[in-house]
Specification:
By secondary structure, the chain is of the alpha+beta class. The protein has a single domain (3-245), classed as paralog of FGE (formylglycine-generating enzyme) (Alpha-Beta Complex). Helix content is 20%, strand content 20%. The relative contact order is 0.20. It binds calcium ion (CA).
Length: 247
């Protein structure tokens, strides 16, 4: 085929592929993402718990799309045909999700959309996005940005009802704790690579971030790290996803 015909075919094919617009529907899910640019930040906290120390500079070398919201019950139901949540409502985050459950969801989503790769954020990506350029405990006034113990009425709330953080991400703090890709090691920060830290090669527990409807303000900070066995599920736990263009 002459080169110019090939180019034309490519152009036509590109025009037929829907743009990655906000709210695009993959497998019946309305997924919305915020593009996070590469950059540097100080991960951890000098005044936090031992596992948050030492604060150390981390570079995120590649941009990525991060879910604007926690994965909702409507999205989980559409893909998985079930809803395990304790606090039932389609626009609330899906809760009672184990790390292993997220693998099932991601496998189905990756199978349904071969143009992209979906995964959990790394712990570093999560904190970089949660901080959104801020360096304190909270990227704003906590009551304005998060559902946590003091204001949640001890339940989850529909996603996106509080103010977003400075990068337009909702409910990073509070509502449900969010599973990350990484194994947990309380001492990891002492030896963390400075660029795109992937977390320990192995471990027992997986990391969760951000606090929840049942966590007090001390636990609902940008740098707090907790961890649980990958099969653990309860009504404090949910997740959000990363999307990357498949190569
Ligand atoms: Ca959250």
């Amino acid at each position: 085929m002459p080169v110019h015909y090939f180019r034309l075919a490519l152009a036509v094919a590109a025009a037929l592929v829907p743009a990655a617009a906000a709210g695009e529907s993959i497998a019946g899910l309305k997924l919305e993402f915020v593009h996070v640019e590469p950059g540097e930040f100080v991960m951890g906290s000098g005044s936090g718990m031992n596992s948050e120390q030492p604060p150390h500079k981390v570079r995120i070398s590649k941009g990525f799309d991060l879910g604007k919201y926690e994965v909702t019950q409507a999205q989980w139901q559409a893909l998985m045909g079930s809803n395990p949540s304790r606090f039932q409502a389609p626009e609330k985050p899906v809760d009672s999700i184990s790390w292993e459950d997220t693998r099932q969801f991601l496998a189905k989503l990756n199978n349904a959309d071969r143009a992209n790769h979906y995964r959990l954020p790394t712990e570093a990506e999560w904190e970089y996005a949660a901080r959104a350029g801020t360096s304190g405990d909270y990227p704003g006034e906590l009551d304005e940005i998060a559902w946590y113990f003091a204001n949640s009425n001890l339940e989850t709330h529909p996603v996106g009802r509080k103010k977003p953080n400075p990068w337009g991400l909702y409910d990073m703090l509070g509502n449900v704790w969010e599973w990350c890709q990484d194994w947990f090691n309380a001492d990891y920060y002492s030896a963390s690579p400075a660029v795109d830290p992937p977390g320990p090669a192995e471990g027992v527990n997986k990391v969760l971030r951000g606090g929840s409807w049942g966590a007090n303000a001390v636990y609902t900070r940008s740098s707090v790290r907790i961890s649980f066995f990958p099969g653990q599920k309860n009504s404090y736990f949910g997740f959000r996803i990363v999307r990357q263009r498949a190569r």
